[in-house]
Amino acid sequence: MPHSKPRPLHFRVFLASPGDVADERALVRRLLKEELSYDPFLRGRVTFDVVSWDDPAAPTPLPARLTPQEAVIRFETRPSECDIVIVVLWSRLGTHLDLAKFRKANGEPYLSGTEWEFEDAWNAKMRPEVFVYWRTEKPKIELDDPDDPIVAEHLRQRRLVKQFIKHFMNQDGSFRGSVTPYDTPTAFKERLATDLKRILHKRLDKADTGLTVPPAPVWDGSPYPGLRAFTLKEGPIFYGRGREVDALIARLRDPAQRFLAVVGASGTGKSSLVQAGLIPRLQDGAIEGSQHWRVITCTPGATGENPFLALAVKLEHVLPAHVQKSSFEIATELAEAPQRLTERGGMLLAGQTDSAMLILFIDQLEELFTGVNPKYQRAFAELLAHAAGDPRLRDLPPVWRTPLLAHATKAVTSNWTGLR
């Protein structure tokens, strides 16, 4: 009889964490689904099933009669049934569970669903590999009013995380387990990749599957765009700038950061950093409470000397049908009343949840001072200032370092900050 072809080893990975590390959750999914399978040693020898309640490709059903934790238990694979459990924490432990439905064996309450998931894996008979990662970067919390309920809840959650970490210490101060600290999401992804490779190599050495069948490619064509910038669609093949993206996300996590300038010499990859690095991470949920990001990209000199027309051309094709106008009409309207951009932005987000945000990505901002008619400069700067004042709009202009930069940023917003 012919020998059957050996199959790759399949690993079920449970991802347990509260909502403040949504960026890390998305990075785990990308690592397992798109990157690790192309490691030279792992290629064609392993497959992964990532279990997480917020997976965009397969979100957990949430029937009204079930609590979120009950829904996870009913519709997902339990942590104790998985091969690897990854727990990621930062400043929150999560919402406490219904005491009538969830209690520990000793009668104590679970501090959150994340703790329940950890305990389910930790106490399993067939113990999975459990990794706990803790982000040590201090979260930004306004402490002007310590009696504010929101501030009080932030502080309570922070204490719960530290209380959870005590799981891994004995009363005499010795270790009974390990927690892996990290400072940024990219550092977490790099450490997780290293840890998983060590575990998987050991498992494969024991199994000796002998498989060398490569997985199907996730990208067709050349991964090198040449002299042009990487686009949003090329996010899956954009690598090497993770820490810079971390820094941008950290800035944007501050609600007061309405205008963000990416500054650097010409040709250093500012447009690629935003289009293929930052925006995909935002759309994957990197910032808690902002799950839907719509992007309008505009280059001031794209249509000649009128930057309003360049922006209007982009808006013309995305505005709802019942409010559509020609690009010339929109350009004239915005030039005469720049503040009306916020009205147009509201139309683009109509019907979306409160978490929906609009990014106005001004690429090659220096063209506002080098390639357009001077009569439009002040009005277009006023348009950006009005956009920066709208809580659902964000300005992201990568700009070339020029002597005009300081003057330009003062004209746009008083709270400008740049990355140098």
The helical percent reads 25-40%
User: H/E order of the elements?
Assistant: EHEHEHEHEHHEHEHHHEHHEEHE
Largest sheet: 5 strands, parallel
β-sheet strand percentage: 5-15%
User: Shape from CA axes?
Assistant: globular
Q: What ranges have pLDDT less than 50 throughout 5 or more consecutive residues? A: 399-420
Lateral strand order in the biggest sheet = 2-1-3-4-5
The number of helical runs is: 13
Structural class: alpha/beta
**Number of domain units:** 2
Would you tell me the overall average pLDDT?
82
Q: What is the fold-level CATH name, i.e. the topology of the largest domain? A: Rossmann fold
Tell me, what is the CATH class of the largest domain? Answer: Alpha Beta
CA radius of gyration is 25 Å
Please report the total strand number as a whole number: 11
CATH architecture of the largest domain: 3-Layer(aba) Sandwich
How far apart the termini lie comes to 66 Å
Task: Describe it.
The protein has 420 residues and is α/β, with parallel strands linked by helices. It folds into 2 domains: 9-207, Rossmann fold (3-Layer(aba) Sandwich); 232-419, P-loop containing nucleotide triphosphate hydrolases (Rossmann fold), CATH 3.40.50. Helices cover 35% and strands 14% of the residues. It is built from 13 helices and 11 strands. The chain has helices at 22-35, 68-75, 113-122, 149-165, 185-207, 242-252, 270-283, 307-316, 327-336, 341-348, 367-370, 377-388, 405-412, and strands at 9-16, 46-51, 84-89, 129-135, 180-182, 260-264, 292-298, 356-362, 393-396, 398-400, 417-419. A 5-stranded parallel β-sheet has the order 2-1-3-4-5, with helices on both faces. Strands 10-6-11 form a 3-stranded parallel β-sheet, with helices on one face. Strand 1 (9-16), helix 1 (22-35) and strand 2 (46-51) form a beta-alpha-beta unit. Helix 6 packs across helix 7. The longest helix is centred in the middle third of the chain and has 23 residues, at 185-207. The chain is globular, with a radius of gyration of 25 Å. Mean pLDDT is 82; it is low at 399-420.
